[in-house]
Design a protein that fits this description.
By secondary structure, the protein is an alpha+beta fold. The protein has three domains: 110 residues, Thrombin, subunit H; 88 residues, Phage tail protein beta-alpha-beta fold, CATH 3.55.50; 64 residues. It contains six helices and 21 strands. Strands 1, 2, 3, 4, 5, 6, 7, 11, 12, 17, 18, 19 and 20 form a 13-stranded mixed β-sheet that branches. Strands 8-10-9 form a three-stranded mixed β-sheet, covered by helices on one side. A three-stranded mixed β-sheet has the order 14-13-16, covered by helices on one side. A hairpin with an 8-residue loop joins strand 6 and strand 7. The longest helix is centred in the C-terminal third of the chain and has 16 residues. The protein is flat.
Length: 372
């Protein structure tokens, strides 16, 4: 098995290709951030002297202009992973009189930025459910290699054309997110599995599945985490109340924070300290109200948070956001499974580290051993 890591950087106006060797040589630091519920972003820092190829030729030619596509891949111990498929949103040049301090910083976001440019308010979608509308919109971005993954909702509703015709409000991204919020779903792009392709996921935020290799703390030779801290905010959990119209009467129903896709990750659940009604649910169907309530309850249920840093080479692979991971070595209270809320990849020559944030909804591990 190959040891170490190898970075691949591709750029281009629409179809990205490997960057020239001088661009790779000039790259000093790279950062990619992926987080649940947020747009992913990246930042590249280059050494760019006044007479360098970057400053003398590539910069004036538009090589680093906004909307230029950027694909970042990394191979760790023989495993290739696409970290980012996005576009440049801005660049900043910082001249300096000191040798080696003349820098060019390129900042960008994932391809959802291209979905947020044109206000298409009024575009009709006759006889189309929300799922069909999302799939139709995402089909417009097939040239970017985006493949839709649309999960049907239990609230699937196909409006009859003679009754009403749904119309878009805002940009494609804004409308897709609004349709997701209506049924308690999330929307994000997952780059890969190969460079130039991405999966557009529209569906429930799933906190189940096969966990990633365990994060080990204070375990001598098995330790693969450089630092980690935890917080317990007991007052952040909220019991939400739905007002549902049933047989002409308004009934108040508490919303559970546990569901098949958001199971308890510990044996000691945390009781809610606050109670808050969700307004407007009596004007929609009970199923729609339940979906909206479950999404809100799931967000407030994660009262346990953790943050830390690891060395990717010691861990053996990049830690991925939006998945589960085991943690061991901290003691009975905080060992167990966590949901990875965000990761930030920090790469420079000869060094690959990640900072991460974790969350879960209960204390004490469900099992006496943590999956390795």
């Amino acid at each position: 098995m190959n040891r170490g890591f190898y970075l691949t950087l591709m750029m281009g106006p629409s179809i990205a290709s490997p960057v020239p060797q001088p661009v790779t040589d000039a790259l000093t630091t790279l950062q990619v951030t992926v987080a649940s519920g947020q747009r992913s972003g990246f930042q590249l820092t280059f050494a760019a002297g006044k007479q360098s190829l970057l400053n003398h030729t590539l910069l004036p030619s538009g090589y680093f202009d906004p909307t230029t596509r950027v694909i970042i891949s990394v191979t760790v111990n023989g495993l290739a992973i696409v970290l980012m498929d996005g576009v440049i949103t801005r660049h900043d040049l910082a001249p300096s009189n000191e040798p080696g301090k003349f820098t060019l910083t390129v900042t960008g976001e994932d391809l959802t930025r291209m979905m947020d440019l044109v206000n298409s308010t009024g575009t009709p979608y006759p006889n189309m459910s929300a799922e069909a509308r999302v799939a139709s919109i995402l089909g417009n971005y097939a040239t970017y290699g985006i493949v839709p993954s649309v999960i049907p909702s239990v609230l699937m509703d196909v409006p009859i054309m003679t009754d009403r015709i749904p119309a878009q409000q805002g940009t494609d991204l804004g409308y897709i997110n609004r349709l997701a919020n209506d049924v308690g779903y999330v929307f994000y792009l997952e780059p890969g599995p190969v460079p130039g392709a991405s999966v557009a996921y529209w569906g429930p935020e799933v906190k189940v599945g096969m966990p990633q290799p365990a994060l080990n703390v204070n375990m001598d030779a098995e330790t693969n985490v450089e630092s980690v801290t935890f917080g317990f905010d007991g007052f952040s959990k909220t019991l939400y109340l739905l007002k549902v119209l049933v047989s002409g009467e308004i009934v108040t129903v508490p919303v559970p924070d546990i569901s098949p896709i958001n199971p308890p990750l510990g044996v000691k659940p945390i009781p809610p300290m606050r109670v808050e009604p969700i307004d407007g649910t009596d004007a929609i169907s009970p199923a729609q109200a339940a979906a909206a309530g479950l999404a809100r309850a799931s967000e407030s249920a994660d009262v346990i948070s953790g943050s830390g840093q690891l060395d990717v080479l010691r861990y053996g692979r990049p830690l991925r956001a939006r998945q589960l991971v085991g943690l061991r070595g901290t003691g009975i209270t905080y060992d167990g499974l966590y949901y990875v809320k965000s990761v930030t990849h920090n790469i420079k020559r000869g060094e690959y580290k990640q900072s991460f944030t974790l969350s879960r909804n209960a204390l004490i591990a469900m099992t006496p051993t943590v999956p390795v």
